[in-house]
Amino acid sequence: MGGTPFGKALGGAGRERARRGQGQLEAQVLAALHQAPGPATAAWVQERLGGDLAYTTVMTILSRLHAKGAVTRERSGRAYAWTPAADEAGLAALRMRRVLDGEPDRDAVLTSFVSALSAHDEEVLRSLLDRAGDGGRAGPGPGRGGAGPSDEARGG
Amino acid sequence: MGVFVFLPLVLPLTALPIARLAEQHLHPRVTTRLLTLLAVVLGVCSTLCLGLLMVVGTAQLPGNPLPDGWSDPEVRAAVPYAEVAGLAAIFALAGALTGCATALRRNHRIRARAHRALDVLPAGADPAVLPDDHPYAYAVPGTPARPGRPARPGRIAVSRGMLRSLDADERRALFAHERAHLRCRHHRYLLAVRLAGCVNPLLLPLRSAVAFSAERWADEEAARVVGDRRLTARAVGRAALIARPVPAPLPAQFASPEAGPVPRRVAALLGPVPSARTWPPALTPAGLAALVAAAGTAASALSSLNAAVALFLVLKAATPW
Lengths: 156, 321
Prior knowledge:
Chain A is mainly alpha-helical and 156 residues long. Chain A is built from seven helices and three strands. Chain B has 321 residues and is mostly helical.
């Protein structure tokens, strides 16, 4: 793992580029840590990132993230095991998206509130909602103003 | 057993008319339960008959571990086209069981992954609101206790992107819908019809019919809880319009000008409350379709029973000890 010289990722084309790339590298390392099933070693992170970064570079970035409080570490054997310290909700969202993206055939397990619409469905749906909106405004709710539900939906 | 062993393989066809008509004529709760029951009985009978055929087919293979007497002419005479049917049944049953195993494994995996994703949130956080701009809302069914792991209750996961686009009342309808999925254990019906579709492809239409009626069931429950059908309809419709940016030009929509599931759900919610009767009136198309399905299912059960008993007796007579 020490085959790549330390300077390769950060040096080479000058310190200017290195400084610009730092935030990006930190984000990459953090994303890799988020994908880990548990605490991960620096070697794991390096492998995860496709081997573009030297081991020492990964260690440097992890130490920097640790100084910022973005990751926590604990000793496991001779190395450190690293865990992202991002807020739980963000982590849960990230993991949930990975489940949703990775499991296209999930209908029988995770029941979604709505399924995808075709163009034709969208037309039908808009006219249905328009009609329902008209009925609603004729009834108790005149305060909704001129915008029908479908217009609001289109806007946001 | 003669032809009776083949009947349960094609009798699922008798359930197709009611699968088509139930949506408009029965309460979605009744539809879900009825169609799932039909699918399970028809699927079990069909698998049983495949198993019987497979025994006859396997007995003819050289080097099989079954008693030699089972390949006697008397056994083969009990099944029409025993050679072809027996061999085909081996492959069909293997395919069916592989499909079931895959479906069960996937079911387990997705549920476990979704729970692991939500485990980082405190257990009381329900609904789990996830900071994600992509609009989605899911009901994650609970998992039973295993050795070394406590049971996990069902949870609702909803993204901030979804909540942002709904007003407070519409959110109540959304949560009521997802809670109804969990409370009425819709995932069990969905898994049952999925497995039925794996063992006999003729049961696949029941799978989509049950998937739709379970959504309708949850819609009706939500409308009951929030006390406003129109509000529920608006919540469903707006959520679908927001979630739309996934451009999905479904090829199935080319041929059929028929509306997809979401417009049908919204239209049903804007219509009157479905009647809660458990059986459609006899002399309507839906009533006749229900009768045909019931007769077909009964015939399937009797045929497979007949075939099983007949084969048992034939094999018993052919076994030397």
